[in-house]
Amino acid sequence: MSMSEALLREFDQEMTTTRKFLERVPEDKTTWKPHEKSMAMGRLAAHVAELPGWAATTLTQDSLDINPPGGPGFTPMQMTSRAQVLELFDTSVAKARAAISAASDEDMMKPWSLLNGGKTVFTMPKAAILRTFAFSHVIHHRAQLGVYLRLNDIAVPSTYGPSADEGRM
Prior knowledge:
Blueprint: H1 3-22, H2 41-50, H3 53-60, E1 63-65, H4 82-102, H5 105-109, E2 111-116, E3 119-125, H6 126-151
Parallel strand pairs: 1-2
Antiparallel strand pairs: 2-3
Helix pairs in contact: 1-4, 1-6, 2-4, 2-6, 3-4, 3-6
């Protein structure tokens, strides 16, 4: 089994679960935060929707400068509707899945760098970037979103087993 085939199985499972969380984000709570230092719920949902795009960026480029000298930096999306977030997520997932499917084991081992203002922040093999930034990063923020849902009395979907709201999977 190739690295791509192995990663796709996990990717598909995690993205299916993640979509369930995004489907429950209430449109009337986009500015809600559990703490002043926290992201607003709408921004967090948009961030979760953007993150699968790291997979396509990682596999189709050798680096990404989040604040390129002389150019515009990354502008995070702000949630205006649940449909907008789901559309972004579905597009990101489709692009990511296509890029992962097309990647060879050799592609997965090529170095990839994150830059900020032209300076390298880190360099890792593309496979490690996928696991860290396209998978684990989504999972981390999805868990945050689950807390936001719970604190707003919105049913939390089952993830790796039953949730308190969904006793059976």
